[in-house]
Write a structure and sequence with these properties.
Shape: globular
Order of helices and strands: HEEHHEEEHEHEHEHHHHEHEHH
Strand content: 5-15%
Helix content: 40-55%
Distance between the termini: 41 Å
Number of helices: 13
CATH class: Alpha Beta
Radius of gyration: 19 Å
CATH superfamily: Alpha/Beta hydrolase fold, catalytic domain
CATH topology: Rossmann fold
Structural class: alpha/beta
């Protein structure tokens, strides 16, 4: 990998980013063959292949937003009452005074925004950088319709939560959610984290998830074990990549966020991509809702935090999902290392799918999540 390539600030973010990691991504490319899914349970390993349907739809068209919105407007009132399919009863439902959405004032005075819908086994969604809980709208509504209780919060400094100047680190993010989990009396929850949210989920589950609070975990396109290149992690990305993130954010956060969403995040920079301006706009909106200082600090948190010991500490079944064309969190230095550290891990990878596959291929991801949760 050429550390000095593509660092000219006069060109767009995508060019700078790819100038640094294109060579490392080149060897990640693989033919569209059945994908190995590795399952570890003690010393047991087994392989599963993807379905023909999945293999044939790695570039499936994005969901038609207008049709989906119209359908949801009719369906959601009915969905809210369907709780019979969830596997466990609601936890603490009688004491929840503010079901729907609200704010929790944390011990340090930070106000944390959250959404809490439905009844049944809790499923908690941890969002990526620099987004908010809104990034999980599709999954929240899907699992609400399956009879689950769904929760998503805006990490401190993101979305509608306080624009915190301090505490923008993984230890604090996990501790913040521990306060929220206690407030909502969450037990037997499934924690699903995407990207930076995967790091937050891993740290929370490892360090705060005991006592029956956590049943399962899912890491999707997640940053663990460590994104940054170090002597112990030679396959990581060089510091210049993340310095470039910080420079672009400071120079023009609005342009930077537009470039990320319109380019590598959803794979919209690929020749055969079906670009959705609505999806780009929604990503940009979420990013601009948060605080610049907190989001700037979070770059260090997601790139330099080492989650190796957290992954080793996780005792619950954990599903690792990753797109093989992930241009933001390259798969070889993330998911393929993570699965080796988990005690009870299952990994499934998707040829051709991007970092933002929970949006671009929500039907595939939702089905796999449901199967894991019900399994």
């Amino acid at each position: 990998m050429d550390d000095g390539a593509g660092c000219c600030l006069g060109i767009g973010f995508a060019d700078r980013y790819f100038g640094l990691i294109a060579k490392s991504l080149a060897h990640f490319a693989r033919p569209a063959v059945p994908v190995l899914i590795r399952r570890n349970s003690g010393t047991q390993t087994r392989a599963i292949t993807m379905t023909d349907e999945t293999k044939g739809t790695t570039r499936r068209a994005l969901m038609n937003a207008g049709v989906a919105a119209a359908a949801l407007a009719v369906a959601v009132p009915a969905l809210a009452g369907q709780s019979s399919k969830a596997q466990t009863p609601a936890s603490g439902s009688s004491s929840r005074r503010d079901q729907g959405s609200g704010y929790l004032t944390l011990k340090d005075g930070t106000r944390l925004f959250y959404k809490d819908w439905g009844t049944g086994q809790p499923i908690v969604f941890h969002h990526g950088w620099p987004l908010s809980g809104d990034d999980w709208d599709n999954q929240m509504l899907f699992f609400l319709g399956k009879g689950y209780r769904v929760i998503a919060h805006d990490r401190r400094g993101h979305g509608r939560s306080s624009q915190s100047a301090v505490g923008n680190d993984m230890d604090t993010y996990a501790a913040d959610f521990a306060e929220l989990a206690a407030h909502l009396d969450l037990k037997g929850a499934v924690h699903i984290g995407h990207s930076t949210g995967g790091g937050e989920a891993a740290r929370y589950v490892a360090r705060h998830g005991g006592g029956g609070r956590v049943a399962k975990a899912v890491l999707i396109g997640a940053v663990p074990p460590l994104m940054l290149r170090t002597d112990k992690n030679p396959g990581g990305l060089p510091l210049k990549v993340f310095d470039g993130f910080r420079e672009a954010l400071a120079a023009s956060r609005a342009k930077f966020y537009r470039d990320v969403a319109a380019g590598p995040f959803y794979g919209f920079n690929r020749p055969d991509a079906k670009v959705s301006e609505a999806v780009i706009d929604n990503w940009w909106r979420q990013g601009m809702d948060g605080g610049a200082k907190a989001q700037f600090d979070c770059i260090k948190a997601f790139s330099e935090t080492d989650f190796t010991e957290d992954l080793k500490m996780i005792e619950v079944p954990t599903l690792v999902l990753h797109g093989e064309d992930d241009q933001i969190v390259p798969i070889d230095d993330s998911a393929r290392l993570t699965i080796k550290l988990l005690k009870h891990g299952t990994m499934k990878t998707y040829p051709g799918l991007p970092h933002g596959m929970c949006t671009t291929h929500a039907d595939i991801i939702n089905a796999d999540l449901l199967a894991f949760i019900q399994g």
